[in-house]
Design goal:
alpha/beta, TIM Barrel, 2 domains, ten-stranded mixed beta sheet, two-stranded antiparallel ribbon, 14 helices, 13% strand
């Protein structure tokens, strides 16, 4: 790459960053310019994404935790997911008890998480499932120690209002990928079905957590579609998941793992497009980023998922707190108190590997 081209690209990134820092929004073609940044210029992109992060969401970070309340036997055929009954991934259907879910929430609070989500497999909840979860959500909301969140699939307006009444504050429902690419990934429901649930949840007064999974064979135009759709839908939290290819799923053999620098580039471009949103790095972090996990903040993220996923185990929370200590970062808990990343107590996991069925993985935060 010639020096002149490098200087021109560096100037372009700085110019677009200045526009965002001034409070103006990027147009689609401007964002597309950022997707063409490569090589040494990526460090310039990360530098400015970090400046935008600090300017709009601050230096403090947040993290959340989830638990799989109901695992496996899902009617949907999402081609990345080990919980689908359409694929042979070795995941055995399972359901946790309320005491187990409560114990997982206690561990999340002890780790410093500001939000805790219960994730159920399936297209959408039955009334019986809502009856089952109501005591947990109402009790947790009443204690005001952590934000109760739910990932239950498609919702009706009545169900969304009921969730809010029982204490749920945030609903996660990912777009997964672009409208264009969606039929290549899922056939049992539509992209519009997902958008409808997001709108229903927002109309019910619930905070919206919605993002995508990257590495599904999509192109950069698909990634931009998702970012701009989420901007229009008003997502409060945007999970950025990276495909963790699981044997037995259709994408295991057809997709390749994202390169760590490409994964960081996705985070950075999303920060330019969504400067004021909480960008949460979630599924696939350990597998795809490996030694570059701490770079997620330099690339513009301000939030991450801590602890276990749905049917796989993440690294111990102590390691993530050590990462924050090493970076000199503080974190904010549900009570809006800034905390130093002091040494976390060694927790004895209440949920065993047999509880969570680690044979497969549906590593995104949504069903």
């Amino acid at each position: 790459m010639t020096e002149n081209r490098y200087d021109a690209t560096t100037a372009m990134i700085a110019e677009l960053a200045s526009k965002v820092l001034e409070g103006r929004v990027l147009e689609r073609e401007e964002a597309a310019q950022l997707t063409r940044v490569e090589g040494d210029e990526l460090y310039d992109l990360f530098f400015w994404a970090n400046k935008i992060r600090i300017r709009f969401v601050g230096r403090q970070v947040k993290f959340c935790s989830i638990v799989a309340g109901k695992v496996g036997a899902c009617s949907e055929d999402c081609s990345f997911c080990s919980q689908s009954k359409h694929f042979d991934t070795g995941t055995t259907p399972n359901k946790l008890s309320l005491p187990q879910i409560d114990a997982a929430a206690r561990e999340a609070i002890a780790s410093g998480a500001d939000s805790f989500g219960v994730v159920n497999s399936g297209r959408g909840p039955t009334e019986r499932e809502l009856d089952w979860l109501e005591p947990f959500f109402s009790g947790t909301a009443g204690e005001k120690k952590i934000r109760p969140c739910a990932t239950l699939g498609e919702l009706t307006s009545e169900q969304a209002h009921r969730l809010r009444e029982m204490g749920v504050q945030r609903v996660n429902h990912n777009l997964e990928t672009s409208r264009r690419h969606f039929p290549n990934i899922v056939s049992t429901h539509s992209y519009d079905d997902r958008v409808r649930t997001i709108r229903i949840a927002r109309e019910a007064g619930l905070s919206i957590c919605s993002g995508g999974i990257f590495g599904l064979g999509e192109q950069w135009r698909d990634r931009l579609d998702v970012a701009f759709e989420l901007r229009d839908l008003g997502a409060d939290v945007v999970p950025i998941n990276f495909l963790n290819r699981i044997e037995g799923t259709p994408l295991h053999a057809t997709c390749e793992d994202l390169h760590p620098m490409e994964a960081l580039k996705i985070i950075a471009v999303y920060r330019f497009i969504l400067p004021q949103r909480e960008l949460k790095v979630a599924g696939g972090r350990e597998v795809i980023l490996r030694d570059l996990q701490s770079w997620i903040f330099f690339a513009g993220a301000n939030s991450f998922l801590v602890g276990n996923y749905l049917t796989t185990f993440g690294r111990e929370p102590q390691h993530d707190l050590q990462m924050l200590r090493d970076l000199g970062l503080t974190y904010r808990t549900f009570d809006e108190i800034e905390r130093e990343a002091a040494a976390a107590p060694a927790l004895t996991p209440t949920l065993t590997r047999s509880d969570l069925q680690p044979q497969g993985s549906c590593q995104d935060v949504a069903s």
